[in-house]
């Protein structure tokens, strides 16, 4: 089995990837603007929903119950979807999913497909797999189109191109759609997209989608969207292929009353998004007559078996944790090296990889808890982050690396006052070649990892312990001459800002 | 087609192993303390519904059973529409005269579509339509006729009414098609109808 999360295996560590992004002022401005707008809108519509906490409680209970009886609900979904004329396939990993999809498309003799936004297809790197086989996937979601035509990477779950502004989008559209003229008002840009895609919607015979919910009770599927491109892909083609992670199943039709209240408010700050489509298998004379669902594992069953982090699978991909995260807001989603960015990405990506890659992601957080507070299904992301950090450390310790040796030496030094004080003296002497303009900017060797993303204050001329000793002596002397003030911690003042 | 029977068994086996320690829990016992019934009176519910539609840039007209053909004619006139395509099952007696009613084969050239609905939700300004997925999607304009008795206050009340239709193709519509993908500015009408008209019918 080979589990893949987009191109994350080749991605640099978070701390490295974040550096150039922090220098990109345009990108940071775009991200700040977008996350501010969504956060504000979300707060308003969540604030007016007086039963918000009750909805969250029910949503997390439904998800938790479903996950613990996942076999039963998946089988029920399969049975009902098949009875309604759909075909259900199971895929253990990305390669198997891609092979099934490719076979289905080739059976129809298709050379093109129209796609509605699906994170799961990015997770399995479907587009490159199709292109390698000579099949062209047309992304139809406006943001996905911007990413596809601009050969860029998505940076947000809900608004994948939020790091691009209107001028940048205009340039991409003019170049890729071969337009000589195009305004840069959002209206102009959406009209260009409408004209560009209409012909494809009407011509291409195979549609491809993800799923927000699979309904066990009916065998139905629900897709949530805004633009209508989803409805086009779901109803106009002759064949429809839908991919969904196995955790997307919910027990009953009625459960949607909970999720359809939580998702739009959390994701885009709307009371309801413009369109939700529900269908069940094949409907005679209405929509695609050939319908396939692929149920994807790709590491999910492994997450299910970890008691502490199983809750990760409750995620309904609303992106609220990304908008709320102070780290994400500074670096954008591009730093996470994975299609799943922000707090949810920091816990999901390394787990999908069984902690073999993306080990720096659990550290891309200040554990402030903002993500947990906004999460509509109450995933305790900080708790899972700490659990995963523990796993990273355990794995690294077992590989007996330099850091582990360093930690052992440190514990010796810290365990006796004498060794500690002499280490401090040595440090003060040894640091001078690295101090410039009052800061330590680069340390040698392994310590360099620390200074790569931080500047340090040098060690002060005198430690607190020495200052305290001297002060006590001074005090004894001064007690004889009243009216004189004891000096304020001299050497420590400097260190305060570090 | 690759044979995925073994994969199916393997995935189910992994799930069962992972859940071997799961205490059995009863779906029926899941707590649902959220609002499930109406808290406002009928007049307030209808007003909320109209307000929400306005916020989505939809146009709302009120009418009665007797005046509905005239109301439809008025909406078409205001929109400079000479033709429209009508959803299956829409009562012909509600249609005005003097309009060219198109067939589904003329969908690509239709100026607009007219449809009824199953249920509408005041709290979110949502209209739920059964079937007719193509005709309510492709034209520039959609006119939807909603009976006051079809409007409920909350999302859970709508799902209770929709339960018998759970396996039908359903579309939830909340305002015209829109996107906020570019600089988070809400733009109306990307691929679906750019304009939504609603006639609210007192019954
Ligand atoms: S973890 Fe919670 S807040 Fe983050 S995307 Fe998933 S559901 Fe939304």
Please tell me about this protein's structure:
The complex is a heterodimer of chains A (498) and B (203). Chain A is α/β, with parallel strands linked by helices. Among the domains of chain A are: 70-304, Rossmann fold (3-Layer(aba) Sandwich), CATH 3.40.50.10420; 414-476, no CATH class. Chain A has helices spanning 14-23, 25-47, 52-68, 70-83, 94-107, 119-123, 126-132, 142-149, 166-177, 186-203, 229-235, 256-267, 300-304, 320-324, 326-331, 342-352, 370-374, 381-398, 402-414, 417-430, 448-452, 464-478, 492-495; strands spanning 87-91, 112-115, 136-139, 206-209, 213-215, 220-225, 239-245, 249-250, 275-280, 290-296, 435-436, 439-440. Chain A has a six-stranded parallel β-sheet, with helices on both faces. Chain A has a four-stranded mixed β-sheet with strand order 8-5-6-9. In chain A, a hairpin with a 2-residue loop joins strand 11 and strand 12. The relative contact order of chain A is 0.12. Mean pLDDT of chain A is 85; it is low at 486-498. By secondary structure, chain B is an alpha/beta fold. Chain B has a single domain (36-202), classed as 3-Layer(aba) Sandwich (Rossmann fold). Chain B contains four helices and twelve strands, in the order H-H-E-H-E-E-E-E-E-E-E-H-E-E-E-E. Chain B has helices at residues 5-18, 42-55, 68-78, 155-162; strands spanning 59-64, 83-86, 100-102, 112-115, 119-121, 126-130, 141-147, 151-152, 170-173, 178-179, 187-188, 195-202. In chain B, a hairpin with a 4-residue loop joins strand 5 and strand 6 (126-130). The relative contact order of chain B is 0.19. At the A-B interface, helix 2, helix 3, helix 4, strand 1 and helix 5 of A face helix 1, helix 4, strand 9 and strand 10 of B. Strand 9 of chain A pairs antiparallel with strand 9 of chain B, so a sheet runs across the interface. The complex binds iron/sulfur cluster. Iron/sulfur cluster is lined by residues 157, 266, 315-321, 344, 374-377, 379 of chain A. Residues 157, 266, 315-321, 344, 374-377, 379 of chain A line the site of iron/sulfur cluster.
């Amino acid at each position: 089995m080979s589990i893949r999360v987009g191109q994350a295996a080749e991605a640099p560590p978070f701390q490295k990837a974040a550096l150039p992004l922090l220098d990109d002022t345009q990108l940071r401005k775009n991200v700040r603007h977008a996350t501010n707008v969504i956060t504000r809108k979300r707060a308003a519509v969540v604030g007016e929903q007086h039963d918000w906490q009750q909805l969250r409680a029910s949503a997390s209970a439904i998800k938790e119950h479903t996950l613990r009886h996942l076999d039963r609900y998946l089988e029920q979904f399969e049975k009902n979807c098949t009875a309604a004329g759909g075909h259900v396939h199971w895929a253990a990993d990305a390669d198997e999913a891609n092979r099934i999809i490719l076979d289905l498309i080739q059976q129809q003799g298709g050379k093109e497909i129209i796609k509605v936004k699906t994170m799961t297809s990015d997770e399995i790197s479907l587009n490159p797999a199709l292109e390698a086989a000579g099949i062209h996937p047309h992304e139809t979601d406006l943001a996905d189109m911007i990413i596809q035509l601009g050969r860029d990477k998505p940076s947000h779950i809900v608004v994948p191109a939020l790091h691009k502004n209107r001028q940048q989008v205009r340039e991409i559209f003019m170049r890729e759609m071969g337009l000589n003229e195009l305004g840069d008002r959002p209206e102009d840009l959406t009209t260009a997209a409408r004209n560009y895609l209409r012909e494809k919607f009407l011509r291409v015979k195979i549609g491809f989608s993800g799923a927000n919910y699979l309904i066990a009770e009916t065998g139905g599927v629900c897709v949530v969207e805004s633009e209508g491109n989803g409805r086009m892909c779901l109803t106009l083609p002759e064949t429809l292929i839908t991919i969904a992670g196995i955790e997307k199943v919910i027990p009953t039709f009625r459960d949607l009353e909970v999720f359809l209240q939580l998702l739009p408010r959390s994701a885009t700050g709307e009371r309801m998004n413009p369109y939700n489509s529900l269908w069940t298998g094949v409907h005679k004379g209405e929509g695609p007559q050939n319908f396939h669902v692929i149920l994807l594992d790709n590491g999910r069953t492994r997450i299910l078996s970890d008691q502490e982090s199983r809750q990760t699978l409750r995620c309904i991909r609303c992106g609220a944790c990304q908008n709320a995260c102070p780290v994400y807001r500074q670096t954008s989603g591009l730093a996470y090296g994975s299609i799943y960015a922000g707090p949810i990405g920091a816990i999901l990506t390394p787990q999908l990889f069984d902690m073999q890659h993306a080990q720096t992601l659990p550290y891309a957080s200040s554990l402030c808890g903002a993500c947990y507070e906004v999460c509509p299904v109450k995933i305790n992301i900080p708790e899972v982050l700490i659990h995963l950090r523990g796993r990273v450390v355990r794995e690294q310790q077992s590989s007996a690396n330099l850091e582990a040796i360093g930690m052992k030496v440190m514990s010796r030094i810290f365990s006796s006052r004498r060794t500690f004080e002499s280490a401090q003296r040595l440090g003060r002497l040894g640091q001078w070649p690295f101090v410039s303009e009052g800061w330590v900017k680069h340390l040698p060797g392994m310590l360099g990892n620390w200074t790569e993303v931080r500047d340090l204050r040098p060690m002060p001329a005198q430690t607190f312990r020495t200052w305290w000793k001297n002060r006590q002596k001074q005090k004894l002397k001064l007690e004889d001459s009243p009216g004189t003030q004891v000096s304020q911690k001299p050497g420590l003042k400097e260190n305060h800002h570090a | 087609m690759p044979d995925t029977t073994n994969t199916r068994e393997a995935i189910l086996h992994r799930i069962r192993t992972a859940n071997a320690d799961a205490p059995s829990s009863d779906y029926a016992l899941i707590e649902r303390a959220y609002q499930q019934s109406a808290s406002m009176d009928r007049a307030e519910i209808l007003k909320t519904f109209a307000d929400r539609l306005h916020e989505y840039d939809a146009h709302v007209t009120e009418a009665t059973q007797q005046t509905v053909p005239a109301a439809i004619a008025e909406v078409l006139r205001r929109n400079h529409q000479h033709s429209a395509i009508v959803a299956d099952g829409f009562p012909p007696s509600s249609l005005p005269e003097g309009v060219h009613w198109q067939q589904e084969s003329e969908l690509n050239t239709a100026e607009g579509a007219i449809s009824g609905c199953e249920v509408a939700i005041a709290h979110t300004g949502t209209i739920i339509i059964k079937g007719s997925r193509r005709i309510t999607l492709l034209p520039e304009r959609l006119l939807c006729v909603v009976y006051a008795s079809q409007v409920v206050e909350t999302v859970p009340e709508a799902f209770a009414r929709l339960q018998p239709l759970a396996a039908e193709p359903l579309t939830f519509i909340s305002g015209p098609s829109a996107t906020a993908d570019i600089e988070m500015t809400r733009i109306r009408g990307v691929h679906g109808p750019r304009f939504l008209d609603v006639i609210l019918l007192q019954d």
